[in-house]
Amino acid sequence: MKRVVSISIGSSRRDKAAEIELLGERIHLERIGTDGDMERAARLFQELDGQVDAFGVGGADLGCRVDQKWYPLYSVRPMVRYIQQTPVVDGGGLKNTLERQLAPLLDARLGDQVTPRRALVTSGADRWGMAMSFYHAGYECVFGDLMFALGLPIAVRSETALKRLAAVVLPIAGRLPFHWLYPTGDKQEVRTPRWGEHYAWAKVIAGDAHFIKRYAPDQLPGKIIVTNTTLTREGLRSAHREETGGLSGSPLKVRSEAMLEKIVKLVDGRVPIVSVGGIMTPEDAKRRLDMGAALIQVYTGLIYRGPRLIREIVKVV
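User: That's the sequence. What structure does it adopt?
Assistant: Structure tokens below.
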């Protein structure tokens, strides 16, 4: 069996391990968080180098690809300095391929419900594929790179301006300590509302989840994601029920469906609803859509079942 380990500078409270089948082969996936400690991550990479089949870099990327230009994040590169044998990747590949399909998918599924066509993308340079997906689909965009990463009250609104900004800022920002630019470890759990006028202006809020959560206002009317995770252990019978951190997967199914039922009645078709939590089978996905969700989000089910779960869901819905 292949073994793939993602070592993240994010919180260790989200550590997981699972086995999936991919292209006919069993793969053991493991995520290890170091709570913001980049040197500990480097030592873990060193310890496991040559012992596993592939590494993932979590909580950070090795650089940003803006259009055709690559900007290294020099403060992150020491984290992988000891790797000599095992192949290593970060999330950049998905950001510049899969995320480019986001706006067309949203439009195809929700159509006129996405009105006005305004998108707040928390960091366009870091999520170039996502940013250009909305921009080239005709959305009016605000790219929040200077606001969300550097705390400067300057909104970027065009592809040209974003590329110019990247060319000027990233060679410098890429050499700053990474935690100056992005929350790591327990800082990912801190929320300080800011940039409320841009959250209110946008119909679509897209980008890194920690950036979005970090500055989100207390309420976002008209922009709804229902049930992602919970801290409660009520009714859980697992031997691990006393552990801390978020709870996801099957234990959320009943609670998520109950919440969805309430929200569907509350909004009465006025805004699209994204249902999340406990979607582990194609039947779970179909039930959420039948209950009134416009979209679903799958996370834990994808970890345990692999990409085949998506194919199975598409066949059913």
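The first strand starts at residue 2 and ends at 8.
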